[in-house]
């Protein structure tokens, strides 16, 4: 089952109702036991999905009709992050174990399935013209980038899995995980945009009664979404993306578009907000 979302114009965010904003940018129903649920956004043709094998044996990545393909990765590449308990991603039947917040990259042309009771796999896919192999990223083996400061309540660790020059190659996809330090609240502060790429954040590790206030829109006319655990937000290339949590959280960030250069971003000064 795959829902399709159309691309949107910057000005429309300013006048959208709360329900319209949520319907366009928030993805709130990705994870269901024994299912793969997907959303196709026309923003850089990214697909985001949730796969929850739930002890049912291997759960294969299906091929939604909208892809008009023999199999899901016929013309696509895939990023995977496990946001649940331990599990395995099977690539052409070869198992790769992923613990909580570990990630994987699967290049074009391969067949993928998922296994593990308690595992919840978050998937992000972009169009691909070449096969860049398979890689597994264990969060505790990746050197984090330390960001933020205590005065700004923004201390966090950014783990880069697929991120362009110096990282594992990809056609379009960039992928990683950011974990907010205890006592801090902000991600991506000061914020930025990147005119050449779309970005999607999947918020995870939030308590049931916690929320992230996610900021989106053009800098001078931002809006917000209240986001729960396991929900994702689509940021078109014109939109800032930043958030503050009411409790501890982490998020998976993923981008696709014109280039794979993580450092190619357009900072937004706080004075512009
Ligand atoms: O906390 C942060 O800062 C991030 O994680 C930033 C994301 O990686 C991002 O938005 C990259 O464009």
From TrEMBL:
Organism superkingdom: Bacteria
MF (Gene Ontology): 4-deoxy-L-threo-5-hexosulose-uronate ketol-isomerase activity; metal ion binding
GO biological process: D-galacturonate catabolic process; D-glucuronate catabolic process; pectin catabolic process
Pfam families for this protein: KduI
Assigned EC number: 5.3.1.17
Keywords linked to the UniProt accession: Isomerase, Metal-binding, Zinc
Cofactor(s) required for function per UniProt: Zn(2+)
Catalysed conversion reaction: 5-dehydro-4-deoxy-D-glucuronate = 3-deoxy-D-glycero-2,5-hexodiulosonate
Enzyme superclass (EC): isomerase
Family: Belongs to the KduI family.
Protein name: 5-dehydro-4-deoxy-D-glucuronate isomerase
Organism: Jiangella aurantiaca
């Amino acid at each position: 089952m795959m829902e399709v979302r159309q691309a949107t114009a910057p000005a429309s965010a300013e006048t959208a109702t709360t329900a319209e904003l949520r319907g366009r940018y928030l993805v709130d129903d990705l994870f269901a036991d024994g299912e793969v649920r997907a959303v196709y956004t026309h923003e850089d043709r990214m697909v985001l999905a949730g796969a929850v094998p739930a002890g049912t044996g291997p759960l294969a990545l299906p091929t939604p009709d909208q892809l008009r393909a023999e199999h899901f990765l016929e013309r696509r590449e895939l990023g995977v992050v496990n946001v649940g308990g331990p599990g395995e991603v099977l690539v052409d039947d070869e198992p790769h174990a992923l613990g909580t917040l570990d990630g994987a990259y699967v290049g074009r042309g391969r067949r993928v399935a998922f296994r593990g009771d308690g595992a919840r796999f978050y998937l992000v896919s972009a169009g691909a013209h070449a096969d860049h192999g398979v890689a597994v990223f264990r969060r505790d083996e990746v050197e984090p980038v330390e960001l933020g400061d205590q005065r700004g309540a923004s201390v966090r660790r950014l783990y880069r899995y697929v991120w362009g020059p110096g990282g594992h190659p990809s056609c379009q996809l960039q992928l990683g995980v950011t974990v907010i330090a205890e006592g801090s609240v902000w991600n991506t502060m000061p914020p930025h945009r990147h005119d050449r790429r779309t970005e999607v954040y999947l918020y995870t590790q939030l308590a049931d009664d916690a929320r992230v206030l996610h900021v989106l829109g053009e800098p001078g006319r931002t809006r917000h979404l209240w986001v729960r655990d396991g929900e994702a937000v689509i940021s078109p290339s014109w939109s800032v993306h930043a958030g503050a949590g009411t409790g501890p959280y982490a998020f998976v960030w993923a981008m696709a578009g014109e280039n794979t250069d993580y450092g190619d971003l357009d900072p937004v000064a706080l004075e512009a907000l």
